[in-house]
Amino acid sequence: MKQNKVEHGANLFDLSKLKNKDISEFVDFSSNISPYGMSQKALETLKNNLDKASIYPDPTYTDLRAAISSYCGANKDNIMIGAGATFFINSFIKLLSPKKCIIFDPSYSEYKKELEKVDCEVFNYELKEETEFKVDLDELRDLAVKNKIDTIFLCNPNNPTGSTITRQQIDGLQKSTGASLIVDETYVEFTDKAVYSSCAVADKNPNVYVIRSTSKFFATPGIRLGYAISSNEEVKQKMAQEFSALWGVNIYAEIIGREMFLDKTFHKFVYEKFKEQRKYLIESLRNIKGIKPFDTKGNFTLIKIENDKVTAKDLYEFFLDKDIIIRDCSNFINLGEKYFRLCFLDEKNNKKIIKYLTEFFGSIA
Length: 365
Fold this sequence. Notes:
By secondary structure, the protein is α/β, with parallel strands linked by helices. The chain contains 14 helices and 13 strands. Helix 5 (110-117) links the parallel strand 3 and strand 4. It is globular.
């Protein structure tokens, strides 16, 4: 299968200019951001502290790291703060400078781009449609051992397939291969963290690194706040010395973060809503003849078009005319022109896209 260069999803700023519409007029099923917005407690606290722009943030982010520690269970001394998950993806790759690394295909494109910058030899572990894009741990372990892999990069749940590896499996994979594991948990909060999150592993195992974002579950991509967990003292020291800028996270991100990580009511609300809507959307998609959704633990699902007359590009353009954005996945490695991805939005919009998909494929059956 042709291996295309993978780009990110829709740029709503470009689309708004192209169609001469405000960004708010689009319904975005491509970005995987929660439709329920940010924590209201965090928002109210921000409103009451807008005057804080005139002071510097705490350079050690003590209260923010304590809030994150309470949220994810990791030792606060093992928590690093940065400007989004991308900061840590780039920084860990530069710092660890892997020579041989495994990445999943299909998966998030930034891993490969950054690995190539440090002249790393990249080995692709193919997630196969015939196995529902699930990970075969024995096969992955054999690939790592056979090729003397020093680093494995995981997105868990994986984007765009939604496939997962449990915390115990990740711990076992590291110990059986001896490789460093960098685990991107951007989407883990949409599933059972007790089963799938590796925070507890990274908190004890110095060869496991967890990266998390606040963009998706907390619906705050604009504040550019991310964090990472590592118990590797040498890595933490080098990160602080070589990559982390003084006051690298602005005071508004700090204020929002301190509140939203402690807002348990908000956490439960978002998780339960997505659990409910994931069930509804997957079951509804399975009832539409001409498409096949794959099981997912994320807040999105990969879907294959099984109708010979239609491609993902056709479907993208159909929805764009209705100011709805889906993710055409034809440029993901190991996928093709028949694949697209939908994230789960609120009940109203989920019902709307099911209605349009049913009408679209019903008209060409």
